[in-house]
Design a protein that fits this description.
- By secondary structure, the chain is mainly α.
- The chain has one domain (about 1-59).
- It has helices at about 1-25, 30-59.
């Protein structure tokens, strides 16, 4: 249970960091590929977060 909660918090932190990076990318003239990669990574973290929440609910 504790490990799942730590993963849950870590994923939330990663999502916040990605949000900050996307905001920085809007000010910088970085390539679109980096922005797209970050958005897909954030989406995958969201799915992982939901999966962990479901696993915790089943226990």
């Amino acid at each position: 249970m504790k490990a799942i909660n730590q993963c849950f918090l870590f994923i939330k932190l990663l999502m916040r960091v990605i949000d900050c990076m996307v905001n920085l990318l809007s000010f910088e003239k970085w390539s679109k590929k980096v922005k797209v990669f970050l958005l897909h990574f954030k989406e995958n973290m969201l799915y992982l977060n939901m999966w962990l929440a479901l696993e915790e609910f089943e226990c």
